[in-house]
Design a protein that fits this description.
Helix content of chain A: under 10%
Oligomer: heterodimer
Number of helices of chain B: 0
Strand content of chain B: over 45%
Structural class of chain A: mainly beta
Distance between the termini of chain B: 37 Å
Structural class of chain B: mainly beta
Radius of gyration of chain A: 14 Å
Shape of chain A: globular
Largest interface: A-B, 19 and 26 residues
Number of helices of chain A: 0
Largest sheet of chain A: 5 strands, mixed
Distance between the termini of chain A: 36 Å
Strand order of the largest sheet of chain A: 1-9-8-3-4
Strand content of chain A: over 45%
Chain lengths: 113, 115
């Protein structure tokens, strides 16, 4: 069962910020929020992750609400190459082995020229 | 740094035939994953290896699917016999335990069509 809820699709104008929401109301204290994206005909690609603080890297920013029940991935200046399916995943910190990811259906982001 | 390699990229077989997929993870990555992605859905984990041992194969249909990772490097996923519902993209991923992000690196996938 997916632990996250995302809109199935969104559009964004090229050059504008893309804000992708994710609800994870049942998240527990040791679960991180991960974002991956999958461009057509490619494997998924890691974007960013966080526990409770906002995070930023060269690709995106992640805003997590104070109660941790939802988050938003922000692509500050979307380009046509950002058109992809974006997956929000909550994942517990594993003990003694590598992390597992449970993918939902994601959000299809289409960046329009 | 070379990425995760998979072969073949495409495979078409008839139902009840057998098929095998190969994966070469990123050098030094102890953990290897196989996922199945049916059209329109997110990837579903089939099996997770750590070195050459199985960590989790709870979602692997063991009556027809098998996987091995000899010597803790390359891995092979086999389907025998294939069914129509096995048509999907099979993704391999690897990760390095201890890296801060626990990032999984995915290969390009093998697209299987069962006729």
């Amino acid at each position: 069962d997916a632990k996250t809820t995302q809109p199935p699709s969104m559009d964004c104008a090229e050059g504008r910020a893309a804000n992708l929401p994710c609800n994870h109301s049942t998240i527990s204290g040791n679960e991180y929020v991960y974002w991956y994206r999958q461009i057509h005909s490619q494997g998924p690609q890691y974007i960013i992750h966080g526990l409770k603080n906002n995070e930023t890297n060269e690709m995106a920013s992640l805003i997590i609400t104070e109660d941790r029940k939802s988050s938003t991935l922000i692509l500050p200046h979307a380009t046509l190459r950002d058109t992809a399916v974006y997956y929000c995943i909550v994942s517990p910190t594993p003990s003694g082995s590598a992390r597992q990811l449970t993918f939902g259906s994601g959000t299809q982001l289409t960046v329009l020229p | 740094e070379a990425g995760v390699a998979q072969s073949p990229r495409y495979k078409i077989i008839e139902k009840r035939q057998s098929v095998a997929f190969w994966c070469n993870p990123i050098s030094g990555h102890a953990t290897l994953y196989w996922y199945q992605q049916i059209l329109g859905q997110g990837p579903k984990l089939l099996i997770q290896f750590q070195n050459n041992g199985v960590v989790d194969d709870s979602q692997l249909p063991k009556d027809r699917f098998s996987a091995e990772r000899l010597k803790g490097v390359d891995s092979t996923l086999k389907i025998q016999p294939a069914k129509l519902e096995d048509s999907a993209v099979y993704l391999c991923a690897s990760s390095f335990i201890g890296q801060g992000s626990d990032e999984q690196f995915f290969g390009p996938g093998t697209r299987l069509t069962v006729l």
